[in-house]
């Protein structure tokens, strides 16, 4: 079975989370991700397809789980995404970061912000560091939930252990909705 039998998500979804899709959707996918992780980038189109195919019935929550020992720019990218969130552009920045995960230096992050109409200086350096508590809280909630790598998905609080492909994830969503 692709879902663990007992709920294992330690921290429930709150107003501080980034939600894509209907907030009233009966099924919630929580993703712990790292902007420099190639597996997370590969999961993005699958998650987008699930949201599109099950519009109104599934929502996606993204939580930061940067692994800087493996991905040296993951933390600065997470901070930039949170800084963009403070300016109302989390998902736009999120999408750019996964599409351009091979270019996540400060100069790149500032350029991405500017392409979104945001000040580049707002997503790097001291301005970005102000969002460290949010990134740390996301990371701690992942550790408390048993997350060890990325991407890690939870469907309605149950850890998802299947392939991150449309068929497998859809089957888990149908099971969770039943």
How does this model look, in words?
It is built from seven helices and five strands. The protein has 178 residues and is α+β, with helices and mostly antiparallel strands. It has a single domain, classed as Glutaredoxin (3-Layer(aba) Sandwich), CATH 3.40.30. A five-stranded mixed beta sheet has the order 1-3-2-4-5. Helix 2 (74-86) runs antiparallel to helix 3 and helix 2 (74-86) packs parallel to helix 4. The longest helix is centred in the N-terminal third of the chain and has 16 residues, at 38-53.
| Rounded mean pLDDT score | 96
CATH superfamily: Glutaredoxin
User: What's the CATH topology label?
Assistant: Glutaredoxin
CATH architecture: 3-Layer(aba) Sandwich
**Sheet with most strands: strand arrangement:** 1-3-2-4-5
How many extended strands? 5
Termini Cα gap:
14 Å
Biggest sheet character: 5 strands, mixed
Taken in chain order, the helices and strands follow as EEHEHHHHHEEH
Estimate nothing, just give the exact number of structural domains: 1
CATH class: Alpha Beta
Q: Which percent band covers the strand fraction?
A: 5-15%
